[in-house]
């Protein structure tokens, strides 16, 4: 693709690094920004810079947050005895959108995947174990994608958590195997949380 400006070319190259954005889409986005008022583009740039420089991760659940402890973990209206274990922030957002869950979360930051070189030590597993030691948590729900990596992670977590006197459950499998949690419709996901089953039962 030939560019009439090095500045234009550099901007397109940066946008094209975003997932799912090719050069043609990147060019369209850049030209769109050029057509906007300078103040509007400045707000866009400021928002991105603040996102990268000021964003935090909750010290309790590891969800993306504006403060050291996220709004969910700090809310007295949430059931802190119930912890839903998810892969990442997108899954927290998906479950919150169902309006069927009032507990708190624990974001692992990924799934165990030996093929990709991701092991238990790369995830927020130890901090989950620490959260269970004070006895406040009565149930953990494994809400992980129905994939080989998700099942491997659940199996490992169950081995680590079964030492505690808590209920360990997993979301009901109304979700097809191989399905990513973030893409499941809200009704199905909400029902799978409500109709969760003990993890041991899901093995049979």
From TrEMBL:
Annotated Toprim domain residues: 81-176
Record keyword Transmembrane present: no
Organism superkingdom: Bacteria
A GO term for molecular function: zinc ion binding
Keywords, comma-separated and alphabetical: DNA damage, DNA recombination, DNA repair, Metal-binding, Zinc, Zinc-finger
Family matches, as InterPro entries: DNA_Rcmb_RecR (IPR000093), Rcmb_RecR (IPR023627), Rcmb_RecR_Znf (IPR015967), TOPRIM_dom (IPR006171), TOPRIM_RecR (IPR034137)
GO terms, biological process: DNA recombination; DNA repair
Keyword Cytoplasm: no
Zinc finger map (C4-type): 58-73
NCBIfam families, per the entry: recR
Its biological purpose: May play a role in DNA repair. It seems to be involved in an RecBC-independent recombinational process of DNA repair. It may act with RecF and RecO.
This protein's name: Recombination protein RecR
